[in-house]
Amino acid sequence: MARRSRGFVWIKNGLVRNENSNKKQNKGGRTPKTDPSIHRHVFRLTDEENAKLLSLFEASGMPNKAKFIISLLFSKEMKSVRIDKGTVDFYMRLTSFHSQFRSVGVNYNQIVKLLYKNFSEKKAAAFLYKLEKQTAEMAMLCQKIIQITEEFEAKHLKKQP
After folding, report:
1. CB-based burial of residue 94 (10 Å sphere; 0-12 exposed, 13-18 middle, 19+ buried)?
2. Is-contact 10 3, C-beta < 8 A?
């Protein structure tokens, strides 16, 4: 039952509607999608198949299982990244070693300057001769490190097609 008063219609449940405006009132909420996913498909897997699916899903890094399965079904590009902790550790140690090697080079330059500044020419030359021998040993060590790194890359970092 409705009651009229000054252009408004009073409805029994307390809602008020203006007779003069024919506009739709905004109910709020999320705007509807243009192409919603409304079709649902169900399939069952064995324990082994489920484990394989879950491992592939985790390796893909996708945030949603449904989108992962859709990408598999429709052959969309799927990226799988495998992180080898040993390789990461190797590169971290190699990086720290490289920074130490660079600091030795900086110290080398400082020592040469100090030798010529604080010692006579003859004494500085004697010390530089010893320093030169140590530098040659470091160069050999650096060559071994490069060789070991190349062997490691060849054996353990095989690119998968």
Report:
1. middle
2. yes
Round the CA-based radius of gyration of the chain to a whole number and report it: 37
Segment 49-65, tens digit of pLDDT: 999 988 888 888 888 88
Quote the crossing angle between the two packed helices 47-60 and 65-73, to the nearest 10°: 100
Q: 160, 81 in Cβ contact below 8 A?
A: no
| Tokens read off for 10 | 């009073």
The torsion angles phi and psi of 96, rounded to 5 degrees, stand at -65, -40
Q: Minimal CA–CA distance to 153: which of 76, 84, 102?
A: 84
93 with 148: CB under 8 angstroms?
A: no
> At residue 4, does pLDDT exceed 80?
no
- Concatenated DSSP letters of the chain: --EEETTEEE-TTS-EEESS--PPPP--SPPPPSS-----------HHHHHHHHHHHHHHT-S-HHHHHHHHHTT---------HHHHHHHHHHHHHHHHHHHHHHHHHHHHHHHHHHS-HHHHHHHHHHHHHHHHHHHHHHHHHHHHHHHHHHHH-PPP-
Closest residue by Cα to residue 94 from 161, 157, 158, 136? 157
